[in-house]
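Retro notes, structure queue

What went well: the backlog is down to a handful. What didn't: a couple of records were mislabeled last round, so from now on we paste the full input next to the output in the thread. Example, using ATP synthase subunit b from Rubrobacter marinus:
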Amino acid sequence: MVEMVAQLDPTGIFDIPNTRLIFWEVVAFLILLFLLIRYVFPPIRKQIQDRQRAIEESIDEAERTRREAHELLAEYRRQIDEARGEARQILDESRKQGEAQRERAKKEAREEADKIIERARNEIGREREAALRGVRQEVADMVVVASERVLKRSIERDDHDRLISDALDSLESDVATSGVGDGRGGR
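Corresponding output:
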C-alpha cells in the first residue's frame, strides 16, 4: 500500500511521517494566526483608527481656521472701507470749514479794507495761520483716530508724525489751489 501511495504521490506529501509534520505546522500556524488576530491586530487597528480620527479632526480644524480667516479678511476689508469713508468725510468737512473760514475772512477783509487796508491784510494773515493750525491739529487728530481704528493698535511716533505730515501737506495743497489768503482781499 505504501508503494501504491508512493506511486500515486511522488512528492511524498501524504507520507505518514510528513503528515504529522504538516499537521503540527498547520496547528502552529492556526495558533499564531489566533494570537495575531486576538492580541496584535486590535491595537494596530486601534492605532490606525486613532490616526484616521486625528487626521479628520486636523482637516476639520484647518477648514474652520480657513473659514475664520475668510471672515476676518471680510471684516478687515469692511473696516478699511469704513475708514476710507470716514477719511473722505473728514476731508470734505475740513474743506467745508476751510471754505467757511475763507468766506468769513473775505467778508472781514472787505469791511476792514475801507478803514485800514494794511491792518486788514495782517489780520487776515494771522487768522489764516491760526485757522490752518487749528485745522491741521484737527485733521491730524482725526487721521490718527481713523488710522488707529483701521490698524486696531496704537500708532508708533514715527508713523504718527508721517501721517500728520501727509495729511497737512494734502490740506495745504488743497488750500493753496483754492486761493485762500492770497493777499488780495477778495477783489
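Agreed that this is the format going forward. Reviewer comment attached to the example: The radius of gyration is 45 Å.
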